[in-house]
Amino acid sequence: MRGAVSGLASPHPLGTTLPGLYADDSFAQRLCEGLDEVLAPVLTTLDCLPAYLDPGTAPADVLGWLAGWVGMVAEPDLPDARRRELVAIAVRLYVLRGTQSALTTIVELMTGNTPEIVESGGTSWSQQPDGPLPGQSAPGLVLRLPAADPRAEAPRLTALIAPFVPAHVPWRLELLPDGAPVRR
Q1: At what angle are helices 100-111 and 150-161 packed, to 10 degrees?
Q2: How much is the CA Rg of the chain, to the nearest whole Å?
Q3: β partners of residue 174
Q4: Are the C-beta atoms of 72 and 101 separated by less than 8 Å?
Q5: What pLDDT was estimated at residue 171?
Q6: How far apart are CA 25 and CA 18, in angstroms?
Q7: Confidence check: pLDDT of 1 > 50
Q8: pLDDT tens-place string over residues 172-184
Q9: Which among 20, 48, 106, 154 has most CB atoms closer than 10 A?
Q10: Percent of the chain's residues with pLDDT above 90
Q11: Residues 84, 91, 54, 156, Cα dihedral to 10°
C-alpha cells in the first residue's frame, strides 16, 4: 500500500451499506467513517491497479518492483524514462535473448552508449578443402563500451547483461575510460 492520503474520500463508503437500523446510529456511522479513512487508500489502489502494473504509468518507486516481476534489474539511479522503457521492453528482450540485438538494446538503455560487440561465433568456410578455417574455434564474446567509472559500473552492467548472453558462450565486459574511442 502506498500510504494514507489525508482527506481521501472512500469510493465505497461503508456507512451507506449498513442495514437501515444503523442508518441513524451516530456511533455506527462514525465507526464506519473511521474505517473508510483507513480503507480509502487500499480501495483507491485496487481501483487503479492496472495503472500500477503498466510501466508507462506506474509510480517511480514501483518500477523496481515491476522490474523484479520480469526478471530485470532497473537501477534506481537511472532516469525514470529509461527505467520505464527497460521494464516495458523486458519481455521482448527475453525473446531475443542471446542475440546481438538484445545485448545492444539492453546496454543502450542502461548506459546510453552503443557497445562494440565482438563475437567468435558464426559459420565459416574455406576455399581449400581441409584448409584452416578463419577465426577461432572456441566460442567467445566481448562487449566494449565507454564508462565514466568502470569500477563502479562493472558489477551493475555484468548483472544486467549476464541473463542475455548465450549460456554456452564465455564472455567478458570491457569498460573503457570515458572518451576512449570504441572500435566499430
Answers
A1: 140
A2: 27
A3: 144
A4: no
A5: 92
A6: 10
A7: no
A8: 999 888 766 565 5
A9: 106
A10: 17
A11: -30
CA-to-CA distance for 163 and 38, rounded, in angstroms? 42
Question: Distances in Å between the alpha carbon of 163 and those of 34, 47, 149, 156?
Answer: 49, 35, 23, 13
46 to 30, 58, 88, 90: CA distances (angstroms): 24, 13, 21, 25
Cell 546496454 belongs to: 107
DSSP secondary structure string for all residues of 108-153: HHHHSSPPEEEE--S----SSTTPPPSS-SS--EEEEEEESSHHHH
Residue with cell 558462450: 169
Is residue 9 helix, strand or coil? coil
How far is 31 from 28, CA to CA, in rounded Å?
5
